[in-house]
Design a protein that fits this description.
The complex is a heterodimer of chains A (239) and B (537).
Chain A: H1 2-11, H2 14-29, H3 35-59, H4 66-70, H5 77-91, H6 95-125, H7 127-146, E1 171-173, H8 181-184, E2 188-189, H9 192-196, E3 203-206, E4 216-224, E5 227-234
Parallel strand pairs in A: 1-2, 1-3
Antiparallel strand pairs in A: 3-5, 4-5
Chain B: E1 3-9, H1 18-26, E2 34-39, H2 46-52, E3 56-59, H3 67-80, E4 85-89, E5 93-95, H4 100-110, E6 115-121, H5 128-136, E7 142-144, H6 149-152, E8 163-167, H7 168-173, H8 184-194, E9 199-209, H9 215-231, H10 233-239, H11 251-293, H12 299-314, H13 317-320, H14 328-340, H15 344-358, H16 360-371, H17 373-385, H18 387-395, H19 399-417, H20 424-437, H21 444-462, H22 466-490, H23 497-509
Parallel strand pairs in B: 1-2, 1-4, 2-3, 6-9
Antiparallel strand pairs in B: 4-8, 5-9, 6-8, 7-9
The chains are: A alpha/beta (239), B alpha/beta (537).
Chain lengths: 239, 537
């Protein structure tokens, strides 16, 4: 429950909420609040309500993601802008406070730009992400080179209404942070669905040294610094 | 003619010309009956110097000063005191000869004009001001009336109070100067010309009038003129475009300054239209490095959207669509992949970024119509600066497209509230709904509520639901391919497999709705109920 509430809070995008509240208060105080404001605010709240409880309505699970809620964020930006302008009008009266505000805004803008690019920076700087990225690319290249196209087995093209698969091979069983290997090597990730249909993964790419599954042989090891990833290949007779 | 000369001042000593201006007036052969300085809280010796030169002074608070209204008030006061004419002079305009005042008053007296302005020159070599003034202030005097409009266009009502003389009674008969912070002279001149009157230009009465020519002041000046043209489009409509001075040998010397002033003009005149485009360009500028450098792949994208987009681009329809995934993102990304021969993952990110950036326009225009230009600009900047929305723009996920749909609904709602005529905004509303439904199936609840709101609005305003019905039909047409696909595949005309399960339940309760079912679907409608742990979306 606390996770759900935390997600709800993050979905409302806290950096703007202060300005939204200020903007609404400002419009009410200056008697400019109109029916359209109410419509806009209600639309925003309704959207977030549906986004928050959609999974619960379908599956009975109280779970959502912040990004679903942020879709409606632009609806409250007019209030946030009103609030930001009202705050600025209040602060700009004194020259030294105005200068200080501009400095704070400049710092916040710099942080904003950094935050926007944070995932990009992290994938090069954070060790786990950097290694995951390197392993994925190298594993995909190795599998692509090793894979010999084969005719699709019978039943491979069947469809399940709530699971998409791209109909591509090889099927690569992976785990985080290497889940993109299947796509990158031209095939797709191996999921439970294929097991239910009786198909085995053509390759297994994993950063964990596990005892090889029966029917698989080690194709290659990828080393980066002190980490190693392992690629196993389905034996020819098992295919 | 009882004449007064009036100068409006604010820190006139700052440029060091104030004493020269006063001395030049002192040297005039024709001396007006009254010399008046209207000062706006100058902090220097402006008032003191004026008094020393025998001028009468009056004060006005800066916040009360208005170029139009204050001058009109002066005209009224002078009329009460029995004056027939007034000369307005700028605090930095220096009369060039002792005859200047006499000549402009003589021109005003001898010709059937309500007002006339004198010639302004710029003595600096290779200055932008000299180049422009050569064109705007020719060497020949003339009287301008409605008949000159075809030739002179916007130069017909061109007028400058920096050095001008007015017949007080005639100026007041035309309502005086309108309330404005720039161009009050031109607005009154235009009014006089439009009502059949005339204004004059006296080339023999001359002043030296020069402005600073640094980039900032030129940009500001250009912006002021642009603002004036934006706020008074009727002038351009009635008289035509402004005159562009012909290029001459000076051009290489003034090119950069002209560019600064032109940019200022463009910003002043078109800033309402330019603002969203600038933010659009800025957002793309920030997004492109992220799209190029970011290659961490979300499983949703690698397992679904990217392969679907590639299948769409390759014409492999079997894998380009799926009942679980509404087709908006795969189709848009597929079109991008096909157009630019790029991979599905890059295409998904480009599609996300495209919809994120396009969202700027409905947000900006919608907000501007209700909350005004400033709020719209700040709101759009906040949209562009929202880190989480920005990230969604380069992740290649569906949420950017949903956001665009929400913003289309927002803009349509604004225009419908404004009672904009025509079906266009109803169609935009339908497009917004379709964008939502074709992007995420779980948007259906919100789409239903917004349709109910539209119906309510329609009944309130038109007392019949025909327009809402029209929107529903348009929406169905837009969604027809997706509905047909799902009808064929899973047996129900819906956009998402979860909606099909609900519709199936409803059909079981109300057998009359069975006609909506396809009895021979290609895929059975059995979905796995995820557990809290396994639920990965």
């Amino acid at each position: 429950m606390s996770d759900f509430l935390h997600t709800l809070f993050r979905g409302l995008y806290p950096p703007y909420i202060f300005f939204v509240i200020w903007g609404i208060a400002e419009r009410i105080r200056s008697r400019r609040w109109c029916h359209f404001d109410l419509l806009l605010l209600c639309s925003f709240l309704l959207f977030d309500f549906f986004a928050a409880f959609q999974v619960w309505m379908f599956y009975g699970i109280l779970e959502t993601q912040a990004r679903y809620l942020r879709i409606a964020l632009p609806l409250c930006l007019p209030f946030a802008a009103e609030g930001a302008l009202a705050v600025w009008n209040l602060l700009k009266r004194e020259k030294h406070i105005r200068l200080l505000t501009l400095v704070v805004v400049a710092v916040l803008l710099a942080l904003d730009v950094y935050s926007s690019y944070k995932p990009v920076v992290q994938q090069y700087r954070r060790p786990t992400k950097r290694i995951g990225r390197l392993f994925s690319q190298q594993a995909a290249a190795l599998i692509k080179e090793d894979w010999r196209p084969q005719p699709k087995p019978a039943g491979f093209d069947q469809m399940k209404c709530d699971h998409y698969h791209s109909g591509r091979r090889p099927l690569v069983q992976t785990c985080d942070p290497m889940r993109a290997v299947g796509y990158l090597c031209g095939g797709q990730e191996y999921r439970e669905l294929f097991g239910l249909w009786g198909f085995s993964a053509d390759y297994i790419a994993t950063p964990n040294r596990e005892a090889p599954l029966p029917g698989y042989v080690l194709l290659s090891e990828i080393k980066s610094n002190d980490k190693t990833a392992y690629i196993y290949k389905l034996k020819a007779e098992e295919q | 003619m009882k004449t007064a000369i009036v100068i409006f001042t604010i820190n006139a000593c700052w440029r060091g010309l104030w004493n020269e201006v006063l001395d030049a007036v002192d040297r005039q052969i024709f001396q007006p009956d009254e010399r008046l300085v209207i000062d706006s809280n100058s902090q220097d010796k402006t008032v003191q110097n004026a008094i020393e030169h025998g001028w009468k002074t009056k004060g006005i608070r800066r916040e009360d000063f208005n170029h139009g209204l204050t001058r009109t008030q002066i005209l009224r006061d002078l009329q009460v005191d029995g004056f027939d004419s007034v000369v307005f002079l700028s605090q930095d305009a220096i009369l060039t000869s002792p005859e200047s005042l006499g000549k402009i008053i003589g021109f005003l007296r001898d010709n059937p004009v309500a007002g006339c302005f004198g010639r302004q020159i710029d003595t600096r070599r290779h200055s932008l001001g000299a180049w422009q003034k050569k064109c705007y202030y020719p060497e020949v005097s003339r009287i301008k009336t409605l008949a000159d409009v075809p030739n002179l266009k916007l130069m017909t009502p061109f007028f400058s109070n920096a050095f001008a003389a007015w017949k007080i009674a005639e100026a007041l008969e035309h309502g005086g100067f309108p309330c404005t912070m720039f161009g009050e002279d031109m607005l009154l001149a235009a009014k006089i010309i439009e009502t059949g009157g005339a204004i004059g230009y006296c080339a023999d009465a001359m002043v030296i009038h020069e402005h600073q020519e640094n980039v900032h002041s030129l940009f500001q000046r250009g912006r002021t003129v642009g603002d004036f043209h934006r706020l008074h489009p009727e002038l351009l409509h009635r008289f035509g475009p402004p005159l562009r001075p012909p290029l001459d040998a000076n051009f290489p010397f003034i090119a950069l300054r002209l560019l600064a002033k032109s940019l200022g003009y463009a910003w002043g005149r078109f800033r309402v239209q330019l603002t969203p485009w600038l933010i659009f360009a800025l957002l793309w500028l920030f997004l492109l490095p992220a799209i190029t450098l970011f290659d961490f792949m979300d499983p949703d994208v690698t397992n679904r959207y990217a392969p679907m987009a590639e299948s769409f681009a390759d014409g492999d329809w079997q894998y380009a669509f799926h009942p679980r995934i509404p087709p908006m993102l795969p189709v848009c990304a597929g079109i991008i992949a096909w157009l630019f021969s790029c991979g599905g993952y890059l295409a998904c990110r480009l599609a996300g970024a495209l919809f994120l950036t396009c969202g700027i326009f409905p947000l900006y225009w919608g907000t501007k119509h209700v909350y005004g230009f400033r709020v719209a600009t700040v709101a759009t900047l906040m949209y562009a600066g929202c880190t989480r929305l920005f990230r969604l723009g380069y992740y290649g996920m569906r949420e950017s497209i949903c956001g665009f749909g929400v913003l289309l609904l927002f803009q349509a709602a604004v225009r419908l509230r404004m009672r904009s005529s025509g079906w266009w905004w109803y169609l935009v509303f339908a497009a917004g709904e379709a964008t939502l439904l074709l992007t995420r199936g779980d948007m259906a609840s919100f789409a239903l509520v917004t349709m109910a709101m539209l119906l309510f609005w329609d009944l309130l305003r038109h007392h019949h639901p025909l327009r809402t019905l029209g929107v529903t039909v348009a929406l169905l047409v837009m969604m027809l391919p997706a509905l047909s696909y799902n009808y064929r595949m899973i047996g129900y005309p819906v956009t998402d497999v979860r909606q099909a399960t609900i519709l199936r339940r409803i059909c079981r309760k109300f057998p009359v709705l069975k006609m909506l079912e396809n009895p021979h679907p290609q895929v059975s409608l059995d979905i796995d109920i995820p557990t809290a742990e396994a639920h990965d979306e």
